Fold this protein.
Amino acid sequence: MTRRAYVYFVLTFVLGIIVGGAGLFYYGWYSGHWRHEFDLNRVVDRMKRDLSLDDSQVQQLRQILQESGRKRRQLQQQDKPQFDALHEDTRNQIRKILNPDQLAKFNEHVRLSDERMKKQRSP
C-alpha cells in the first residue's frame, strides 16, 4: 500500500472516533444520563479544595447546605399540588383542541411520560 492509503486509513479511523465520541456525548447529555444528582459530599469537597477551607468551616458549610436542602424539599412538597394542578390543567386544555385520533395518541404520550417521570423519581 502506498503512503497515501495509510494516511486515508488513519484519517478515517480518527474521524470515526471523533464522530462516535460526539454522538455518545450528545446522547448522554441530552438523555439525562450524565447529569448528576446533587451530592453534598462532592460540593463540600470541591469548595474545601477550591477555597482552602479549614475543618471548622467545612463543618459549618455542611450544616448550611443540609439545612438549605431540607428547606428546599419542604418548599417543593408545599408547591407540588399547585404544579400538579397546573400541569393537569395544561393537559386538559390541549385535549380540548385535539380530534379523537390525536387525543388517543396524546393520552398514550402522557401515560408514557408519566411512567418515565415516576421511574426517575423512585430510587
